[in-house]
Amino acid sequence: MRSGRILLALLLLIGVVGVLTTGAAIYSRFMYLSLLLGIGSWIWTHWTARGMGLQRFSRLQRANVGDIFEEHFEVANNSRVIAPWIEVYNQSPIPFVSGSRLFTFVIGRQKRTHLARTWLTRRGGFPLGPTRISTGDPFGLFRVSKDIPASQTLIVLPMIFEIKSFLFPPGLLPGGQVIRRKSPDITPHAAGVREYVHGDAMKRIHWPTSIRRNHLMVKEFEQDPQAEVWLYLDSQRDVHIERPYLFDEVTVEAMMFGKRPKFQLPPSTLEYAISITASLAHYFVERRRAVGYASAGQTFTVHPADRSERQEAKILETLAFVEANGSLSIAALVAAQSSQMPQGSSAVIITPSTRPDLLFAVDDLQRRYLRPVVVLLDAVSFGGKGGATEGLVRALRERRVPVCVVACNANLSQVLSEFSSDFISQDMRTWQTHVLSQ
Questions:
Q1: C-alpha dihedral (101, 107, 109, 114), degrees to nearest 10
Q2: Closest Cα partner for 263 from 68, 117, 56, 83?
Q3: H/E element holding 115?
Q4: Which CATH class is domain 50-157?
Q5: Which helix or strand (DSSP H or E) is residue 406 part of?
Q6: What is the pTM of this model?
Q7: What values do phi and psi take at 334, rounded to 5?
Q8: 369 and 340 in contact (C-beta within 8 Å)?
Q9: What are the sequence ranges of the domains in the chain?
């Protein structure tokens, strides 16, 4: 582009100097040709740029780490002039983002489309843009660009591993899935409707039935004997470890026909902990268990226990943005929320910490007749200092607390699924017997 302008300027300069010094006709032709070429190219470029447009379409705005994100780009030349070339440059901050492309010879009133596939390797929120589109004249003299701001955001959720089985809290009430006994409280199990009486809460009114019967009707609920499951994610700043790593960029050919490349979590205790938490949340919600979540990263976040799919979506979206920059220890996190848990519930603690705080958290849960489960990330395998993990595991087992040790590069689906089968029935009985530290 710059060399073309220099050549045009030299041609004009030669023509002007020649006309002024010799007056020969060839120099005047040089001068007029350079002026005509420059003015014509400038008008062509800006005319084409005025009618240049771009639209981006994506079917989903949420995906998981390891997925292939597909996005359609549509470039339009709305002017009547041929665009010699249109360049699309995708400036989205997604790692290994694709979508940049060069279109040639786009005639007037024509649209061109192409499909971009991006391998998602990092969780978080990423704007789908901005996008820069550029065009120019066929002689390479002028270039005009437009920056189109992002209008949508892609939320990349943590990677979910399939878990076939995991420890269930048995609950303290007798019975099966639901106790056929009316409950004065609102539970997830609606039993029917009855007439409104003075003192009933407005939120218990069932409006469709009330309209149909022409008087107020309220919902009745049955008791739920199943205990809650709470997921405590340790997000303290100083406990997580990460080894240096580098992802290899995946070629377009490797992602043809929607083929998903094999993804391996980065050697980071935080990323492993987040994927484990997401997998457990998906596992329990899929089995209609009430799941709660608590963490204290950049913010203190608590999601009260719920069994709906919306609860899973809330937990996964929270995990997409979690960072290990909190100051609250795992013991303080558990103490802040354990008083709200019903007796008989279980608390799954996901942490790489080998500090005594973990034992304090376990003791606090057992004092409240809650059932702790510890998913302990082996810090040594992630590059941390060794010596404390084995002693901590031994201390937890002395308290009859189930411990699942996860090493770097472990198959999380296999490790988490086999954990409950390794925890034999005798251990399951002693799990319900609380042994406090001296």
A1: -20
A2: 68
A3: strand 110-119
A4: mainly beta
A5: strand 403-406
A6: 0.80
A7: -65, -45
A8: no
A9: 2-48, 50-157, 182-223, 229-431
Question: Which CATH superfamily hosts domain 229-431?
Answer: von Willebrand factor, type A domain (3.40.50.410)
Sign of CA dihedral 144, 149, 150, 151: negative
The alpha carbons of the chain give a radius of gyration, in whole angstroms, of 32
Place of tokens 């609950």: 171
Tell which residue, 229, 227, 230, 232, has the closest CA to residue 357: 232
Strand intervals (E) in 24-90: 52-57, 62-64, 68-77, 83-90
Q: Which two tokens stand for residue 129?
A: 């843009």
List the structure tokens of 403.
Answer: 């411990």
Label residue 314 left, alpha or beta by phi (over 0 means left) and psi (-120 to 50 means alpha). Answer: alpha
pLDDT given at position 384: 81
Token representation of residue 161? 């591993």
Give the tokens for residue 86: 């249109």
**What local confidence, expressed as pLDDT, does residue 169 receive?**
58
- What does the alpha-carbon distance between residue 48 and residue 52 come to, in Å, rounded to a whole number? 6
Alpha helices in 130-266, H assignment, sequence order: 207-213
Q: How far is CA 30 from the centre of its chain?
A: 61
Long-range interactions of 386-393: CB distance < 8 A, separation 24+: 388/354, 389/354, 391/354, 392/354, 392/358, 392/359
Nearest to 166 by CA among 252, 56, 7, 283: 283
Structure tokens at 90: 């995708």
- Which positions of the chain have pLDDT values less than 70? 1-5, 7-8, 11-12, 19, 168-191, 221-226, 247-260, 386-387, 421-438
